[in-house]
């Protein structure tokens, strides 16, 4: 797959992985799925599910650091600013051969165009928040959220598969 092919899949994920409603219980269900997966795999992970006006779920597993908290903050800010996944933004910027600072004049200390931030969208309302994780390579951070959303929304995971290898070195 090419960058454009993966980008098309990332866009499709955002179109199809939307909720009919999203409340505190839904946030708990999504966050708990991600947490259970991280604990089962013994992954160090920070998990943050939020509406843009308030946090709804937060958890961390053993092994995370304060750096992971900062990555979550930056990824969530990116989703809120662009209303798309932080991983999708990474692909878009790569295709343009630029970065977030050059293209949008945004500080990398406040925004991160890497995987791990995904928009929470409600049909008829649009993007209302984000699901964000940090602790693993960014592609896996992104995929963990997508897999949990697929499970919660009863969607076939295989419809949202990216290329086997990340096109990025880090």
Number of strands: 4
What CATH architecture label applies? 2-Layer Sandwich
Q: Give the % helix.
A: 40-55%
Uncertain runs are none
Strand content: 15-25%
CATH fold name, please?
Beta-Lactamase
Domain unit count: 1
Describe, in plain words, how this protein is organized in 3D.
The protein is α+β, with helices and mostly antiparallel strands and 170 residues long. It has one domain (3-157): Haem-degrading domain (Beta-Lactamase). The protein is 48% helix and 16% strand. The protein is built from six helices and four strands. The chain has helices at residues 3-16, 24-41, 66-82, 86-96, 100-104, 138-153; strands at residues 46-51, 54-60, 117-122, 126-134. A four-stranded antiparallel sheet has the order 2-1-4-3. A hairpin with a 3-residue loop joins strand 3 and strand 4.
SSE layout:
Elements: H1 3-16, H2 24-41, E1 46-51, E2 54-60, H3 66-82, H4 86-96, H5 100-104, E3 117-122, E4 126-134, H6 138-153
Antiparallel strand pairs: 1-2, 1-4, 3-4
Helix pairs in contact: 1-4, 2-6
């Amino acid at each position: 797959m090419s960058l454009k092919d993966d980008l098309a899949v990332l866009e499709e994920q955002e179109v199809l992985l939307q909720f009919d409603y999203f409340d505190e219980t839904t946030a708990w269900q999504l966050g708990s799925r991600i947490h259970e997966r991280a604990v089962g795999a013994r992954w160090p992970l920070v998990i943050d599910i939020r509406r843009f006006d308030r946090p709804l779920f937060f958890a961390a597993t053993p092994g995370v650091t304060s750096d992971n908290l900062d990555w979550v903050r930056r990824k969530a800010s990116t989703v809120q600013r662009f209303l798309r996944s932080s991983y999708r933004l990474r692909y878009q910027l790569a295709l343009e051969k630029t970065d977030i600072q050059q293209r949008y004049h945004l500080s990398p200390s406040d925004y991160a165009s890497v995987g791990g931030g995904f928009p929470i969208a409600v049909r008829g309302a649009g993007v209302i928040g984000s699901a964000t994780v940090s602790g693993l390579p960014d592609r896996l951070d992104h995929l963990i959220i997508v897999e949990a959303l697929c499970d919660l929304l009863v969607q076939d995971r295989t419809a949202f598969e990216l290329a086997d290898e990340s096109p990025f070195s880090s």
